[in-house]
Every structure is written in C-alpha cells, then in structure tokens.
Fold:
Amino acid sequence: MNAVLIEIKNAVCVITLNRPDRLNALNADIHTGLREAFDKIESYDEIRAVLLTGTGRGFCAGADLMQSLSGGTRDLGASIDKDYNPLVRRMRACPKPIVCAVNGIATGAGMNLALAGDIIIAARSATFAQGFIRIGLIPDAGGTYFLPRLIGEARARAMAMLGETISATQAEAFGLVYKIFDDTTFAAEALALATSLAAKPTQALAAMKQAFNVSANNTLDAQLDLERDLQRDMGTTPDFAEGVKAFIEKRPAVFTGKPA
Structure:
C-alpha cells in the first residue's frame, strides 16, 4: 500500500496521506511520498493547485512514535533536518497554492504540516492539538513560528504548553482555519475549493505567496517596495491582459496561469 496517494484532478494535485491504521502518522515512507509529490507539483505546469488531506479518521497524527521515537533518547534534530524542515520550507516556497483539508485528527507535526499550507479548512469532526509537551518535546515543523502569527502569543503558548485538544469550531474561532464543512460534504468542498484556485491566475497566486511569506518580518517600506516590484511583474502576464479584457467585455475571465 502506498503511504502517499497522488492524483491529478482538474489541474489540482490531490495528495492523500495513506496510513489510516496509524492515523497517517509521519514515517519515512510518507516523507518519501511527499518529496515525490512536490517534485511532480514543481515540474508540471498543468498542476496549478495542491490539495493535501488524509485517509480515514486522521489528517495526520504527527511523527510515528512507534517507529521514530522508540528505544530511549536520540538526536531528534537529525530527522528534523532531513525531513520536516525541508518539507515545511518546500510548502511555503511552492509557487502553487496549497489547500490543507484537515479531515480528522491533526496532532503535533501533523497539525503544523497543515499550518504550512496556504488555506486550511477542516471537517466539523476534526481536532487539533500540539501534543509535543505530552512526550517532553517542543513544537517543531514550524509550530512556534506559525501559531503565534495565526492565533496570537497568548493562545499559542497555551496550546503548546498545555497540549490541549481543540475542536474544529474552536480552531475556526481562533483563526487557525479558514472554514469548516460538514463531514458528509467535506471531500467535495475541499476539491471544489482547490479547483477554484487552479482556475485563478497562477502567477498572481505565486506572487501573493511570496509577499505574504516575508510580510511579518518586513518593514512597511520594504513591503510596499516588494508589492510594487511584484505588481510590475504581474502587469506583464497574459492573465492580467485576459482579466482586463474580460472585465471590459463583461464576461468571465479564462486564465491560463502562463508566465509573461
């Protein structure tokens, strides 16, 4: 059984973590599968959006403790350097928008994997937890970076230090997720959202990602200059020309995602 399923639907690369018996806990096979998926995403122009989800009751239960952490103390930094940090960096740098569809349990690095996406949605039955404290660890895979920026310092520290599990409704109220959907329609809603992104101007979405990625650490002046430079680039793209033409002709635009 493949630990990661990859399927192209309507210009969307659907990535499904596929270890349902382990709640899609991260192991070497999943990391290998994710690397292969992003190789494909970065190489094929026909892929214009990404949907990341899980099989069964879990989105991702974090690192597979039975395989990764058994046998006492060890150098956990090595696996972070090899697998987790490159994955998070790759997701944030990916020029194509990533929808993380949290269909069930999202714990530890599994939760932070979701936070590395661009748009995070959740099934109503989904749950979120920073479970690291339960085994004497700190949040990794970007947890200490993403959480304060998404939900504020007070809630971030509480989630990390207490290790409590929150519901999808609480996650939406906190600002962790964009929307929640009923379980029965979740898969269809997730694909529809990703498909709508795939039909939008791909170069503009990539530029947005670039701008958002640095905005938290930029001065206003630096960000204004970056917006100017990126907008200058967008003004030369076929999709900008098509968007203006469609606006004048009062019809829906048909974007191709092609660069200038």
